[in-house]
Amino acid sequence: MLPIISVSGLSKTYASGFQALKNVDLEIRRGEIFALLGPNGAGKTTLIGTVCGLVRPSKGEIRVDGHDIAAEYRATRSLIGLVPQELTTDAFESPWGTVSFSRGLFGKPPNPAHIEKVLRELSLWDKKDSKIITLSGGMKRRLMIAKALSHEPRVLFLDEPSAGVDVELRRDMWQLVRSLREGGVTIILTTHYIEEAEEMADRIGVINKGEIVLVEDKAELMRKLGRKRLALQLQSPLERIPPLLSRYNLELAADGCEMIYTYDAKADRDGIAALLRDLAGSGIAFKDLHTTQSSLEDIFVDLVSDRQ
């Protein structure tokens, strides 16, 4: 199946000489939730802006559902919905009015049934005639999504969708994003909440200093780059690691009462079995053990810090 978005050789250098994007190649699969992660200034917003036709690239090609963004701007832009970070709405307009107006901007004929459906799905129907200035921050954020969905796009960009939103509303928004995907919309989101990407994304892309560091299925990324930690609570405290165990790169914690073994998540159990045998051979007994696995946040921090 052809990707719904194809980016090749994309670069952007601003008039100041700052190069925000450097030869970016990226494909977004139809119907997926794709999370784009990166530190501040990494190029996330510039990349979204170029795909949406809001930022003119210095070089490269972008195709949306087979249409060239430069040669067929109106066709490609009508396929895309964008929810920016900033809340930009007319404070004295109503949700019904602003969402209907957004639909008209894309040349779509009036469709009250669709506007009602969008407002109901975003729990805004009861506020459809209220002035936007009276809405809460969370409602305004949902209204931005409603505007982006007004013209029935096939692709939805969410730039920091839950910024400034409380935890409960954030989870409601996650459920909304999943339902949109189930309805056939491809979702691309940027987020500073790593747990948001870990919770929702099918694939993860990491951008740093204008370059794509990696693109990977989330489960595969967790499997390949995740680390596991085995914590052994010792019967008696140790002052140092015995020489026989030096090859395991163990750490002592809790004043010598705990021994930490960190290993690659894709390693098999042989390493742990060998460690336990060598512990017994060294006369070290333990009373309990437990394992933990690194989170997507741990992986992201490692990836970015390795390339500073």
What is the fourth-level CATH superfamily of the largest domain? P-loop containing nucleotide triphosphate hydrolases
CATH class bucket of the largest domain: Alpha Beta
Number of helices: 10
What's the total number of strands?
14
Structural class: alpha/beta
C-alpha Rg, in Å? 25 Å
Structure report:
- The chain has 10 helices and 14 strands.
- 33% of the residues lie in helices and 28% in strands.
- The protein has 2 domains: 5-222, Rossmann fold (3-Layer(aba) Sandwich), CATH 3.40.50.300; 226-305, Alpha-Beta Plaits (2-Layer Sandwich).
- It has helices spanning 44-51, 73-78, 95-105, 112-121, 137-149, 167-182, 194-200, 218-225, 270-281, 296-305, and strands at residues 5-13, 19-28, 33-37, 59-64, 67-68, 80-83, 155-159, 186-190, 203-208, 211-217, 227-234, 251-253, 258-264, 286-293.
- It is an alpha/beta fold.
- The protein starts with a strand and ends with a helix.
- The protein is elongated, with a radius of gyration of 25 Å.
- The longest helix is centred in the middle third of the chain and has 16 residues, at 167-182.
- The strands form 3 sheets. It has a 6-stranded mixed sheet with strand order 6-7-8-3-9-10, with helices on both faces.
- Helix 3 (95-105) packs across helix 4 and helix 3 (95-105) packs parallel to helix 5.
- A hairpin with a 2-residue loop joins strand 9 and strand 10.
